[in-house]
Amino acid sequence: MAELSTVARPYAEALFAVAKQDKAGLPAWAEQVQQLADIVAIEDVRVAMADPRLEDAQRASIFLGLVKPEASAAMQSFVTLLVANDRLSLLPFVAEQFHALKDEAEGVAQADITSAFPMSEQQVAELVKLLEPKFGLKLKPHVKTDASLIGGVRVQVGDHVLDTSVQAQLVRMRDKLVA
């Protein structure tokens, strides 16, 4: 998978550079890129796009016909480029990297919060309020529950992990006792 991400990176960066200059704004572009990624994720679409009887122009036309509302001219050119280079299957990776570039430009980071117990919206908001100064970014929380944590939370923001779970504390205690 890392290889596909590496191949997708220049496409995402080029698309992001164009999107920054467009008056429609990054959120509109992010929405369009995600829609394209969602369309290419459909099995029937992937099969149709791999049909050897189709010319590149036909592939691009069929694919763009699935986009509602109609894609912008720049996005149409982008899809045509991907089809010509046989890279349409990279769209999910391009979308992922585009969103990461957008978040970075906006000073936002995704925070994966895993809790031992379900958290209310108020608890999540309070936790995010405490964490934002620590990371120096505006955080978008994604919360899930994992009972194996026993208690506490584990927060991952990019490469940084803050693990205050009981499970992690027990592992640290075990490591100290063994050492």
From TrEMBL:
<dbReference type="InterPro" id="IPR000711">
    <property type="entry name" value="ATPase_OSCP/dsu"/>
</dbReference>
<dbReference type="InterPro" id="IPR026015">
    <property type="entry name" value="ATP_synth_OSCP/delta_N_sf"/>
</dbReference>
<comment type="function">
    <text>F(1)F(0) ATP synthase produces ATP from ADP in the presence of a proton or sodium gradient. F-type ATPases consist of two structural domains, F(1) containing the extramembraneous catalytic core and F(0) containing the membrane proton channel, linked together by a central stalk and a peripheral stalk. During catalysis, ATP synthesis in the catalytic domain of F(1) is coupled via a rotary mechanism of the central stalk subunits to proton translocation.</text>
</comment>
<keyword id="KW-1003">Cell membrane</keyword>
<keyword id="KW-0139">CF(1)</keyword>
<comment type="function">
    <text>This protein is part of the stalk that links CF(0) to CF(1). It either transmits conformational changes from CF(0) to CF(1) or is implicated in proton conduction.</text>
</comment>
<keyword id="KW-0375">Hydrogen ion transport</keyword>
<keyword id="KW-0066">ATP synthesis</keyword>
<dbReference type="GO" id="GO:0005886">
    <property type="term" value="C:plasma membrane"/>
</dbReference>
<keyword id="KW-0406">Ion transport</keyword>
<keyword id="KW-0472">Membrane</keyword>
<comment type="similarity">
    <text>Belongs to the ATPase delta chain family.</text>
</comment>
<dbReference type="GO" id="GO:0045259">
    <property type="term" value="C:proton-transporting ATP synthase complex"/>
</dbReference>
<protein>
    <recommendedName>
        <fullName>ATP synthase subunit delta</fullName>
    </recommendedName>
</protein>
<keyword id="KW-0813">Transport</keyword>
<dbReference type="GO" id="GO:0046933">
    <property type="term" value="F:proton-transporting ATP synthase activity, rotational mechanism"/>
</dbReference>
<dbReference type="Pfam" id="PF00213">
    <property type="entry name" value="OSCP"/>
</dbReference>
